[in-house]
Design a protein that fits this description.
By secondary structure, the chain is α+β, with helices and mostly antiparallel strands. It has 4 domains: about 80 residues, Serine Threonine Protein Phosphatase 5, Tetratricopeptide repeat, CATH 1.25.40; about 100 residues, Tetratricopeptide repeat domain (Serine Threonine Protein Phosphatase 5, Tetratricopeptide repeat); about 160 residues, Serine Threonine Protein Phosphatase 5, Tetratricopeptide repeat; about 160 residues, Nucleotide cyclase, GGDEF domain (Alpha-Beta Plaits, 2-Layer Sandwich), CATH 3.30.70.1230. The protein has 27 helices and 9 strands. The strands form 2 sheets. A 7-stranded mixed β-sheet has the order 2-3-1-4-7-9-8. Strands 5-6 form a two-stranded antiparallel ribbon. Helix 17 runs parallel beside helix 19. The radius of gyration is 29 Å and the shape is globular. It starts with 11 loop residues before the first helix and ends with a strand. About 55% of the residues are buried.
Amino acid sequence: MYSELPEQELGADDLERFAEAAWWTGRLEQAIHLRERAYNAYSAEGDERGAARMALTLAWDHEGRGAFSVAHGWHANAERLLEGRPESPEHGRLLLTNALTALFAEGDLERAESIFGSAYELAKRVGDRDIEVLALSGKGRARIKAGRVEDGLALLDEATASAVSGGLRPHATGLVYCLTISSCRDLGDYRRAAEWTEAANRWCDQLDVTGFPGACRIHRAEVMRLRGDWPAAEAQAQAACDELHDFDRSITAGGHYEIAEIRRRRGDFTGAEEAYRTANELGSDPQPGLALLRLAEGKVDAAVAGITRTLQDTEDPLARMRRLPAQVEIAIAAGDLATARAALKELERIVDSYKIGERRAVAFDATINVANGQIQLAERDWDGAAASLQRASAEWREVGAPYETAHARMLLGLAFRRRGDEHAATVELDTALATFERLGARLDEERAKELLGRLATRRTFLFTDIVDSTRLLETLGDEKWRRLLARHDELVRERILEHGGEVVKKTGDGFFASFESPKGAVEAAIAIQRALADEIVAPDVRIGAHAGNAFRAGDGSDYGGQGVHVAARVGGAAGPGEILVSEETLDGVGHAFRVSDARELSLKGIDRGVDVVAVDWR
């Protein structure tokens, strides 16, 4: 074990080398311990440059783990050691650290570029090629963030070519790759990102190391996902997270976010939720993916709240650009076309400010065309939607993104159907369905089958919810509320099971249940209301039911699809003590129950009106 090396037998140089070996083989704790010993050894020898070098390296180690106070302490130590000394590579490292802080932590692009420039000039004077190329790369990243895209990409390409040549040490090479690939991704230049990703991963594989290179593997996973190889992409992202451990919390968080994105597209809502939560715990905003997950679950209000909050907290234009397409989709589901239009307008403005030359990146143009097509569908502009979505599908095909292409084609099929061209609609929907089936995109597969009339699984879904639970908690207090809730849960669960239902899951203060027959679902709802009415004290409960198409999501313990969404929205529209059922659910069994006259509801996230009736249970 490196931590057991006898201190008296090793000099400062040896300890530094052993620390580097520990770091590259994934032993961060041992690397930190050895670097602290090297720092003390250099200090004892009076080698202030060596001590400063170790202090800067330790600052990097602790910042990656999120221990910012410790990192700042080591950084200040390095500054003190180097103050007033002749120029050296360590001064260049100090400048690079300050420039990266200005770029990423402070967002001061002008200051960052200035410091990178100073580091570049100093590196040339002291003959340190690593610092020279890193400064060039950082300056390129700063120029891209400032909107000087062509200049920035030129600097990044120059820096990365130097890294490819093998003239840099491994750590500098890895940093250059990360800055380049992340910049290409932010700009939607997936061709350039894929080219540099392949080069970066050849380098990682040749070195056969863990830790820092995990960041390269996350970029590889992103490219794999875009190209439709989802199982390999998830495996690659998981391997990256395993390699990184606590080397860098923000990069590890990015790996978990990537895993969540893959799982969400595959309909694994439970797995996606877990990965988004892990990303959030590691300090990364899980948006816009988490808001889109809520939308897929039929929780439109939660999706609106999530995407609104993250946009309020996000100022960086490139970060906003990644969130705005989700806001368009969610706002449309909420019936808020004004917000959708405003989000599209801002998206176009940002994309235009980051053009590569005189053109938009093809992926960004495709994103804009999809968003515009979605809004035009909501506005019933069938011809306009068809034109936008035809352009989008062609552009995504050019990028080489099968899922995004299929999604655009499914929307295009809907536009063709709305304007009366059923043959063209079927061609687009069939093509989209084949891609979704191949990818394992369960939610989209279900939607395409539904539009084609090929969805076989039909269940009756029931949602219950306690009305005004927050007020009851405040009135009763924690202990009485806990006992009341336990009794409520017992009664509701028993009545669901007695009538042949399956409790899918708890939903806050209520239940989500599935039944084979509409009759069993309505009988369970009546039994629930009557059982609660017989209690001395019981909360008011609203219940909604709908029979519709759905699919088993994730590990088979949950359901997803349009039928679930309608049932959830019907339940949300019910009043205290009311059982609300979509009229179509009672076809063939309606004579068994006393019901009110039908009324039409306009439900958030549902593109058609739903006729509902109230069931008389008293």
